[in-house]
Prior knowledge:
It is built from 8 helices and 20 strands. The chain has 371 residues and is of the alpha+beta class. Strand 17 and strand 18 form a beta hairpin. Helix 2 runs parallel beside helix 4 (136-149) and helix 3 (107-120) packs across helix 4 (136-149).
Amino acid sequence: MADIVLERVTKLFKQVRAVDDVSLTIKDGEFMVLLGPSGCGKTTLLRSIAGLEQIDGGRVRIGGRDVTDLPPRKRRIAMVFQSYAVFPHMTVFENIAFGLRMGRLPKADINERVEEAAGLLHITELLGRFPAQTSGGQRQRIAVARAIAMKPEVLLMDEPLSNLDALLRLEMRAELKRLLAEIGSTTVYVTHDQVEALSMGDRVAIMRAGELIQVGGPLQVYDAPADRFVGGFIGNPPMNLLRVTAAARGGNVVAVIEGAGEVPLASAPDGAGDRPDTPLLLGIRAENIEVHASGAPGTLPAEVLVVEPLGSHNLVTLQAGGQLIKATTHPDADVRRGATIGLRLDPGRIRWLDAETGSALSVDSPAAPPA
């Protein structure tokens, strides 16, 4: 077993709480992604798991062992850094074998493990070369091979793909996901790239200012953000967050967007019908907004500001009641800058947040369908 349990972990740099009272359990064999903007504490938390940072509070347990006060070499982990950190004077074989030789494994075992790791990373033909004779993507594979050759219980990865170009990063994402599923190590992966996080992780832990904001599966954090920060950080484009108030219409509850119109609801925040003037945030993803002709029944009028053709779809920026809205359309849709069109928000895909705190709100039983 190689589960990781963080109990109220805190790390201070002078008066700054880089990691602030974080508790998190990572299951044996799980691929957990730590996601957040630069400076949120995700790398510091990873280094705290590794033992590269001495924490100022809390406990770290790996596989049931309390490793809080153990040095990195006794935690049975391997780490892949953002920089490749390969030794230029050693061949690829020697780089991969370095940790095994330090562990004084028999030569036959070293050869077997190096060959196995190189085969998994498709770099067997490079074993006799020096790093200067390899590409950036190949050097990244060397670093990963060196880590997995150790057969660690826990693999820690700190933005390992950030130095690669976009096409190679896409290729390596798929390879790493396949590889880590094969070797079965418990993996903690740090990134600021939400596409990496959503496409690779079993679960995603989102951090901000040293705090853990939300932990969940990729679809969960995308579809049901815990607060305004998560909704605005996850997704490209981010979730639309519209300022609205609730109103009762013939026994139904609708959301009123000042200066634009009303949105029929499939569900409403708890008690919204009892406090119709309370400001709320209506969250909805761009792909859950349909574009119709101006004046179509049940639509909001909106002015088209920008149309961005992206191949598989168009990303359209609109304005309704002074608020900006992002929507997607089919690439052949006739949507032009300056035109007024109608928007229909999928009632079942609306998410509600408190306008003051930004926190997600619980929802009443489904609202009565519009008359």
